[in-house]
């Protein structure tokens, strides 16, 4: 037996000694996959300072970055989607709509209003991707049509910002009809010689890309935006071929003549101002 015996003490670690990192201070970039300080991204107009990836932004942020301060006046807020087909997939369409309305605080995926951009009067529409993926149903189609008619009535350009997964499947053929409806409204703008500028953001797909979003007198796009009808994976599975690198990105579309300009978010307001000055419709008519 050993004549010396020492008591062994268990080593314990206190959770209070750990460095606590508050949640939400850092964000992972979808472009370069780097971890970035969130405030640095927010102060850079939601653009990655390392790779220039354009993060999605809210409707309110889009309006604030684009329109002159205090000039945006929304209208058409009372339009609400119905459920004419009594549609149900995993849940009922009515319930899905209520959840989206509670989440976003608006009745549908499109916000429209009158505004000024560098002193030029415009009609502006911004899609909210947070509302059922920015899908186009009857309300979205109606708002775009009313925006086009208002632009004709006031003799001011219309600017629409697209961010959508396409037509809203829960409204079936009624959703697909909005493609023809919005396209016809934009055609009437062309007949009245009222300009329409389309701004495509990430992502813009399906029936939206196949209708009003690609019908602008000038089509602008943000850097790296995914734009197309069907997704790349679906196309590869259909044609059994590997797609080119960067396929359906805005840079690819610019190279192939499907968009006119790629504009960084920081330069978008000034670019729109120069385009509006080119069209020169300064004298807006009052709305009856």
In words, what does this structure look like?
The protein has two domains: 20-55, no CATH class; 56-279, 2-enoyl-CoA Hydratase, Chain A, domain 1, CATH 3.90.226.10. It is 33% helix and 16% strand. The chain is built from nine helices and nine strands. The protein has helices at residues 38-42, 59-66, 93-104, 138-154, 172-191, 206-209, 232-239, 250-255, 265-279, and strands spanning 26-28, 35-37, 73-75, 110-117, 120-127, 158-164, 196-204, 218-221, 261-262. α6 links the parallel β7 and β8 (218-221). α4 packs parallel to α5. The longest helix is centred in the middle third of the chain and has 20 residues, at 172-191. The N and C termini lie far apart (106 Å). 37% of the residues are buried.
Give keywords.
single chain, 288 residues, alpha/beta, 2-enoyl-CoA Hydratase, Chain A, domain 1, seven-stranded mixed β-sheet, two-stranded antiparallel ribbon, 9 helices, 33% helix, globular
Determine the number of helices (DSSP H or I, runs of at least 4 residues). 9
* H and E order: EEHHEHEEHEHEHEHHEH
Mean pLDDT: 91
Termini Cα gap: 106 Å
What is the percent of helical residues?
25-40%
Structural class: alpha/beta
**Within the CATH hierarchy, at the fold level, what is the topology of the largest domain?**
2-enoyl-CoA Hydratase, Chain A, domain 1
Strand order of the largest sheet: 3-4-5-6-7-8-9
CATH class of the largest domain: Alpha Beta
Stretches where pLDDT falls below 50 for ≥5 residues?
15-19
Assembly form of the protein: single chain
Report the strand count: 9
As a percent range, the share of strand residues is: 15-25%
Per CATH, the superfamily of the largest domain is 2-enoyl-CoA Hydratase, Chain A, domain 1
Q: Sheet bearing the most strands, described?
A: 7 strands, mixed
Question: From the 3D coordinates, which CATH architecture of the largest domain would you assign?
Answer: Alpha-Beta Complex
Number of domains: 2
Rg on CA atoms, Å: 24 Å
General shape: globular
